[in-house]
Design goal:
Blueprint: H1 16-40, H2 45-63, H3 76-92, H4 97-128, H5 133-142, H6 148-158, H7 163-194, H8 198-226, H9 237-254, H10 258-272, H11 281-300, H12 311-337, H13 356-368, H14 373-399
Helix pairs in contact: 1-2, 1-11, 2-11, 2-14, 3-9, 3-10, 3-11, 4-5, 4-7, 4-12, 5-7, 6-7, 6-14, 7-8, 8-9, 8-10, 12-14, 13-14
């Protein structure tokens, strides 16, 4: 009788959960490499992380032939949501009376100038180039959105505390509120022009904005009083994570703007919690790993098959949005000089980054106008990579 000398390595095939854990570890490991490259070059680490995500998409779709699949399927959306809510909550903390008294009027002036010029340039330009009305109006509204994570991270990385840096932080803190409002009105206008159901679109926009205000107050008001009691003057890490997860989960469930709700909650905690000394310290400690996932997964969500179909639309959108942002900044700077404040003439270019919010708006537009869906979504996703790669460089240029 011969003994069976065969032996196999006792390792099972990795399931979905195991593969996701491995991929999360790889993404964080690659972020360390991106940090090392960024520290030795002039490239922002945000841009490098987005390019890492594009590389993941290329390997999955072209190398492995998994077309239409997304990395961390089922986990990517919650991770992106949590990262954006953290950023919005911290930006809401910037809206204190002391800061608003010094920069509030400038924030409104510059942000409105950039928004108006951007919407007019993108919308009118795409119509003149012969693109469909639904595409032109949708992209004009989507162009308003700015990625607060990229701007705030670049400003934080630079260590700049001058007026222009504080102004940029204030603008991105309210930019998403403007973006949601403009997008809701644009969808209502399109619904009225194309199908006569503008009232329903306007009601949905009202719920997204009004519901976010109610949710932000419902979470922020008790949080302002309850947090910071266990450890006097400073919320614990558990309290910080609980706030973020509650805001992200409830906003998704109620279908309201998680960003606006988080900004309202952050502003309430910052302004009403007199017993706090370091309101957002714990969130800042845990924010960066989630931002790594956000930037990498934003780049990895691209469907590379449809990029060629929307090449001309993408190039036109990028050029028109950059022109609108630049001229809007020039106009805002001119109006600011009349109030005795001198700003860089190219400050509008610092509001170029665009990511998750724009893609979310694009998905909503695709649901309402599926006949233009492939063209619209491909243009937004491709331009997002360009804006997320180019944007931090432009923020640095303006700060410099």
């Amino acid at each position: 009788m011969t003994a069976d000398t065969s032996w196999e390595w006792p390792m099972a095939e990795p399931g979905t959960a195991t593969a996701n854990l491995i991929l999360l570890g790889l993404i964080l490991s690659l972020s360390i490499f991106a940090d090392a490259v960024a520290s030795r070059t002039r490239l922002p680490r945000i841009s490098l992380l987005v390019l890492v995500g594009v590389g993941v998409a290329a390997a999955q779709q072209w190398g492995l032939g998994q077309t239409g699949a997304r990395p961390l399927d089922g986990l990517s959306e919650p991770l992106i949501q949590v990262a954006l809510v953290m950023v919005a909550f911290l930006l809401g903390g910037e809206l204190t009376p002391e800061r608003l008294r010094s920069t509030g009027p400038l924030i409104v002036i510059v942000s409105l100038a950039v928004i108006v010029m951007g919407v007019l340039f993108v919308g009118a330009g795409l119509l003149l180039l012969g693109f469909p009305l639904a595409v032109a109006v949708s992209l004009a509204a989507i162009s308003v959105a700015t990625d607060p994570a990229a701007v705030s991270e670049t400003v934080h990385e630079s260590g700049d505390t001058r007026l222009r840096a504080r102004l940029l932080m204030g603008i991105v803190a309210i930019d998403d509120a403007w973006g949601i409002l403009v997008f809701g009105l644009a969808m209502a206008l399109l619904g009225w022009l194309l199908s006569g159901n503008g009232g329903l679109a306007l009601a949905q926009a009202g719920w997204e904005l009004g519901g976010a205000l109610v949710l932000g107050a419902a979470v922020g008001l008790p949080a302002a009083w309850l947090t910071g009691r266990l450890r006097p003057g400073e919320p614990t890490q558990v309290e910080a994570i609980a706030l973020i997860l509650l805001l992200a989960g409830l906003a998704t469930w109620l279908e309201v703007s998680a960003l606006l709700a988080a900004m309202i909650a952050g502003a309430l905690v910052a302004n009403l919690s007199s017993h706090h000394t370091r309101s957002f310290n714990e969130i800042e400690h845990i924010e960066w790993p989630f931002l790594v996932f956000f930037f990498v997964l934003s780049g990895a969500s691209i469907d590379l098959r449809h990029l060629g179909d929307a090449l001309w639309l993408t190039l036109a959108y990028i050029a028109l949005r950059l022109a609108g942002r630049y001229l809007g900044g020039v106009l805002g700077g001119h109006l600011a000089r009349q109030r005795g404040t001198r700003l860089p003439h190219d400050i509008g270019l610092a509001l170029t980054p665009q990511a998750g919010i724009a893609m979310g708006m694009a998905l909503l537009a695709v649901e309402r106008y599926p006949e233009q869906g492939a063209l619209l979504l491909a243009a937004v996703v491709a331009s997002t990579v360009v804006f997320e790669t180019l944007g931090p460089l432009l923020v640095r240029r303006v700060l410099r």
